[in-house]
Amino acid sequence: MEKNELLNPINIGNWHLKSKVVMAPMTRSFADNNTGTVGKDIVTYYRKRAKDGIGLIITEGINPSLRGKGTFGVPGLYTNSQVDAWQKVTEAVHEEGGKIVAQLWHVGRLTHRELTGGFPPQSPSIIKADGLVHRLRKPYETPEEMSKKDVKEVIQEYALAARNAIKAGFDGVEIHGAHGYLIDQFISEVTNKRTDEYGGDILNRLLFMKEVLNAVINEVGKERTIIRFSEIKDDIPDYKWANPEENIKAFIQVFKEIGIQIIHPSTNNFTKKMTDDMTFHQLVRKYWEGIIIGVGNLNTKIASEAIKEGTIDLAAFGRPLLANPDFINKIKEGQPIKSYQAAIDLKYLN
What we know:
Elements: E1 10-12, E2 15-17, E3 21-23, H1 40-52, E4 56-62, H2 80-95, E5 99-104, E6 122-123, E7 144-145, H3 148-167, E8 172-176, H4 182-187, H5 202-205, H6 207-220, E9 225-230, H7 244-258, E10 262-266, H8 280-287, E11 291-294, H9 300-308, E12 314-317, H10 319-323, H11 327-333, H12 342-345
Parallel strand pairs: 3-4, 3-12, 4-5, 5-8, 6-7, 8-9, 9-10, 10-11, 11-12
Antiparallel strand pairs: 1-2
Helix pairs in contact: 1-2, 3-6, 7-8
């Protein structure tokens, strides 16, 4: 039987990955809600995946500041105790021969002052989100419009969190620029009505993302920085880009200007066509020669074929890895992948 492409190792920069499987970032909410520190259960959780042979682990979203917190139990990387706690995780992953990067996640307007130490949400413009805050089940609050001073402060918070990630032993950093959170709020014409250099056309709206990436790269290096971006928005389910190809070209122009090498285009459905004849990842590949992490309700067959044809280089799996800490072993042995069950797999750390 032909070996599944996912099982092949790959070298990316200085990373030697044992497989082409990536653990997608997934909110777990098992950190101490008051301190933002992770415990032994999280150490064991990530160790299992590294031991199984996952090539690259991307952590759950980690807040670069208390004000970036969007729900209960989200970990941080802005205090010494948080750094010390994450160090135990990275040591465990490295002991098993794995690689792990910290995803930095600021939710922007998608929060409530009950979660952020009394501060109102931040956003590029004063536009309130529809819906309820995750798990808090209260309506989103009207955000404060970020001043230029606020913008610079948040960029420095990302830089500090990236510096702390390296102190904690992470192999790199992923910036969450997708799904309608703070960076994506700057990028979207729906949430950004600014008239300064951060507003206006798409390249102006991408400026905040560009400045965050440059600040993070300054701390960790281009080869260890990943950006996640998307059309989809968690709070605006029907949102679509008016011109997908032009948007993708604008993103990639910025990525090339920065010199980043690994990108993570995110969608809920990997095989869904974004234009008449191309999926999101195929459109990205049309303009990008670097490393692409594919994601979007993948199965092992679709992922393997997409790697073979050159659309993506790595394949990220989320829910299957929650339900199957032995995911790689099951692929090797040809065993069935256990179905994800939210009532079990979200509630407990398997």
